[in-house]
Hints:
The chain has helices at 2-13, 55-63, 93-100, 140-150, 181-187, 209-222, 240-247, 310-313, 326-337, 343-350, 353-365, 408-412, 428-434, 437-452, 457-476, 485-490, 534-543, 546-551, 559-568, 571-578, 604-619, and strands at residues 47-52, 71-77, 80-90, 107-111, 126-130, 158-165, 168-177, 194-196, 251-252, 258-259, 379-384, 387-392. By secondary structure, it is α+β, with helices and mostly antiparallel strands. The strands form 3 sheets. Strands 1-2-3-4-5-7-6 form a 7-stranded mixed beta barrel. The chain has a 3-stranded antiparallel β-sheet with strand order 8-11-12. Strands 9-10 form a two-stranded antiparallel ribbon.
Amino acid sequence: MWGKSKAVLMVLLTVGMVVPSGASCVGWASGQVSTSDPEPFITDRVVTVRIVMSEEDWTTCQLNAQAEQYVRADFWFDGELVPDVAIRPKGNSSLRSAISSGSPRFSLKVDFNLFNTARTFRGLKKLNFNNGFSDPTLIRETLAYELFDQMGIPTPRTSFVDLWINDTHLGVYTQVEQIDKAFLARHFTRNDGNLYKPEMLSAPLNWTEEDVQKQLARLEATGQDDTDDSPDVNIGGGKLRDILEALQPEEYAADGDSVPPGAPDMAQGGIPQPGIPGEGLPRQPLPGQGALQQPQRDGQQQPAGQQRDYIEAVGLKTNENSVDHSALFRFLDVLNNEPDSTFPAEIERVLDVDNVLRFLAVSTLTVHLDNYLGMGHNYYLYEVDGRFAIIPWDLNMAFGTFNCSIDREGLVNFFIDEPTCGPIGERPLVQRLLSHQPYLDTYHRYLEEILEGPFSVETMNARIDELVDLIRPYVEADELKFFSTTDFERAITEDMRGATLTPDRPQGDMPQGQAPQEQVPQGKAPPIVPPLSPESLACLRKQIPLSTLQELRIRPPTEKEIEALRACLSQAEILAVTQGILRQAGALPQAVGVQMGAPAALGLKTFIAERVTSVRQQLDGERPSAGDGSGNGGSTTMFNRQDGLPDNVLPWEQPAKGVRP
């Protein structure tokens, strides 16, 4: 047991450290173990990280992981002890995937100074440990961060660790640097500017201060309170609230992972998913937590996707006690309203355009669609002296893993001059910059630079081999990984589908210790697909823009919008949706009745080789580099389905066409 191992480890690794007899594993009164390596990101080897907490806290974490509550623990990094840190599960898709499969392999956030504001670990206040739930190779996230860094973009550092909690060997994780003031101090001349992490509604950046004022006026006029997320307007046969619950677009989460439409937040009193350990567990204060019972996720007042207005959703992370959004409003006004004739001069005053062009080049080349190009989120904006820069975040689904409902051929040949999932007009940061020829030329030059340098087939293949060799022994020893060792090897070159999406997969090819996943928990009726005809979905897509659908969750609809809904949905469809049909069979957590599973993963080396060829052909004019303004035909909503797949398959779960099981 870890109790004995702990004693042995302390004898071997500590000098002059006194441990009280019979002390629990929470809050050892000890100093730090000396270390000869102050670097927190060790990249030439896999470092062992051990997290030691009381068994009671570890059990509670597993039973109520989705509450994301901090607990006290001791943190051992490569033999160095940091006592009394705060640790919690993190994520949304990654966290829900672990919970639904009954795995304790959660992504984790470690806060070193929550209990001691003067303390850091090797200069860091926080660290993230990501579980690789979507990537059989476990290296996509690191590869993508390296590419952003090599293009001169302020980028979080990463490394690989072999992670333990008490006696539980969680296995290979990616350690990722937190974007906070410590990070900002390393990359910018000042770290006292405004740092934003935009989520819906704000993330597309297609709004201005005027929109904020109109929104606030509507809320004030309707007298809506903070508990009302959507209006109780009856559109004829059912409430608009229920329609929006069934049809709402993707929502987003505090630490960057995508949330299935309608997924409840456990911390907000949502209904647990069927089969989750600890279903219905009362939320009690955990040992040593006190005021931490209801943690604010790194300053965020509500889970992403549940924000009520633009300002809340824009996610200010610094200077919260002296809020001043004037620079942000100026930037958004220029981005959305400045005439083309004066746009270049004015945008340069409020935006580091070169930084954004580099960001777009890497995102486009790697087909990272779980960021601004697709879902619209997973990035930070940092402002100093009225000028903004963009910072990448949450790259575990780069290299086409998040496919926006785009088929395999579309991912490989993703347009470089119209690099958005849906209409390019919904992403003004892309549309306006790439519409200016000098910026487009610079962007093309950066694509050339990456192709000839860090993203060349030879360079990427060599780096992939290096990382695979580095982690292979630890992958083989990892009994809780989401994919098998065979999958790890195959996915380097072969397209694969997620384990929980292929129930006919041979048991011998499942990760050790993990049983094949059932699509429906025993005793439950089959999930029900929303009973909406293709014609109704097409009508909604045409009549109800994404931005309007989002707004209807926080304001009453106009008469025109009600008429549009009535025109698109038949009376039978309205009744079917509003009478709770989607709440049957445990469908509410996913709103469209599908058990969430791991995404499809394209063969890494194969995808890179094909992508390099396609981008080269687009740059040379041998292949179209743009379409008709509609982007790449993808979708981040359930009602933009053009691929023949059932509507209950979500964009990040479905395989791109051509991906083999």
